[in-house]
Amino acid sequence: MQWLEINLKYLLIFLIGHVKPGIGNTYERDPNGYLTYCPCMGRFGNQADHFLGSLAFARALNRTLILPPWVEYRKGELRSHQVSFDTYFDVEPLQKFHRVILMSEFMDQLAKDVWPVEKRVSFCYMERKSLQKEKNQDRQCHAKDGNPFGPFWDTYNIDFVASEFYGPLHFDVHHSAVASKWQAKYDVVSWPVLAFTGAPASFPVQLENCELQKHLQWSSKYREGARDFIKNILPRGAFVGLHLRNGVDWVRACEHVKDSQHLFASPQCLGYRNERGSLYPELCMQTKESIVRQLKRVIKNVRQTQPKNEIKSVFVASDANHLIKELRSALSRMNITVHKLDKDDPYLDLAILGQSNHFIGNCVSSFSAFVKRERDSHGFPSSFWSFPKEKERQQQQTRLHEEL
User: Fold this and answer.
1) If 359 and its partner were Cys, which of 134, 153, 311, 382 is the partner (CB 3.0–4.6 Å)?
2) pTM of the prediction?
3) Minimal CA–CA distance to 380: which of 327, 328, 309, 321?
4) How many angstroms separate the CA atoms of 241 and 313, rounded?
């Protein structure tokens, strides 16, 4: 009996010591090291692109990814807000793909031993100029200069004692042996935590990393919120989800179309090498007339191809004008209702759009790209505003009729 009690005791110690980060209360140090970064470029759509690339990078280096909070900018406030990663997404599905831990849990449970304050070094490709313009400064990453950089690291009381310039190393782990070069140059003993001033990933997301979206699953709050809206607000039946970009800042951004081969997330429809076409103004900013025309065409197509699952409503997400009045007028004879959230919540917008029977998004928008990737992971249909061009679409339809 005494032998059995001793063995049970050691078995219990073993099990407690190997609880996965984020699920239990005990955290075991990862002997392979950690990686974290500030998601300091853009709003959620851009940050989501960077997250997928950073997840792939951490996995290639075999380091635990410290999940950073999402950086949000609220109207009328000068400093960014940091929202814990698990507010919007579950951690457990990510852990099934690779080792991850929330930044708050790492700082509370492991940082004191793994990453003591006197060894905290910021990583950047090359020197980042200081906003303070102080003379005789050493070359530094200036990881906390400006917003959101300062507020982000301050949220966890992180200061850096030195800077490390990692250039010419890069993050493309799919087309090179760069992962082994990172591991050779930054061994775990000397560099237990790699903390980047910006995401170790490209924007837009690399094609090879798009499939990682399937591991990014909504938290129960947003799963249930989307389900409740669809069940209790939308009429019974199928619905089309729309994403409209038409705010003042978007109008200005679209002015760059004429000088670009790609803009923001445009590779998602044009292809990364423009193999499916070149950038044009209507792809970025559509007229009300073209939106109505394309929406009606999609509704009629769904009715023809899925007669038992008739479209009954439209859900609209937008950064500015939802065009509710115009769409209701245009669809009134088709007995289709048009809806939006009563209170703006872009994350709930995303969750609802992901569940629509058909989604129409903006090819250039990274917000739309998030929805498209999620739907692709489930095999749900999506399309883009003004893509392909009207003339090209008509030519495709003509060729199809001729073949038939």
Assistant:
1) 382
2) 0.90
3) 309
4) 9
